[in-house]
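Many groups now describe folds with learned vocabularies. In that spirit, our science desk offers one protein's residues alongside their backbone shape tokens.
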Amino acid sequence: MVKKSSRKKTSKRNNYVMVGLAALTVIIIATAFIVLSRTHGENTGKSIANSTEDSANKILAIVNGEPIFASDVDAQYAQLPPSYKNIISKDDLLNQIIDELLLMQKAEKMGINVPEEELDNIINKAIAANNITLSQFEEALSQKNLTLDDVKNFYKKQISIVLLLNQTVLGNISVGDDEVEDYYIENADMFKTGMQVRASHILVKTKEEAEKAIERLNNGEKFEDVAANMSIGPSRVRGGDLGYFGRGEMVKPFEEAAFALEVNETSEPVQTQFGWHVIRLTDKKEGRQQSFDEVEEQIRKALLIEKQKEAYQNYVAKLRESARIEILS
């Protein structure tokens, strides 16, 4: 529990935290399923005047005079991971493309521009980070039916939108100390940790091998030595140490056996889908309430993201209200 009247304010807390670049987080949230696209006219080679009624050139929507073609939506939808397609329809994607187009149109109207050198710098950093050559990067793109210009256009859009939002709605968003403290007080239960245990194990294929491991332990061999010698699990390089874990983090039979042990006690063979385990409990931590200082920045960031997300949604809603949008499908 935080007592506001007695809390000492540091200089950091006396000021609201301004995180302009955190606008990028909002973009990621808001356009998580926008993939490299060609919808803004740079490389579609299409217009309302020369479009036909075939499925490739069918216009799905017109946003302030700019068309969005079925082929562009289909191309983007095809690149979505299968898990996204389970929750995102083509209509959802079309609406996201409309929002992105409105933001790009606004950015252009405000004269926001991303220098070519900045785009080249981003590409060069990506290439260097992956330790590949430019030709290898272009080859990887071609396998996804993309070009270097597609990548540049994608980053140009995203950076332009970030700059737009920072200049218009996100630059002045802040989270005050009182808001953070109030959230902590009102949601104290969220910051309670359950009991955690630390355990080591020896994983083998058969019950007989597990019993052999226990026999070696009973004969005085060190647990970490037997684990290094017999275990088939990756933790063998750490003497079988699995670190701390809470309930729900391990498979049920392993969890039940581990939490039933006393510190320095060794289990009988325990079977899971991975094989047979010999478990030794090495430490136990009781659950506790996390202090305000421990979670302050976590809360501040979460509240900031929520405010940014709401501001983003309101801004796009206003752009939609003043736009001429025709949905043709």
Q: What stands out?
A: The radius of gyration is 28 Å. Residues 292-322 form the longest helix (31 residues).
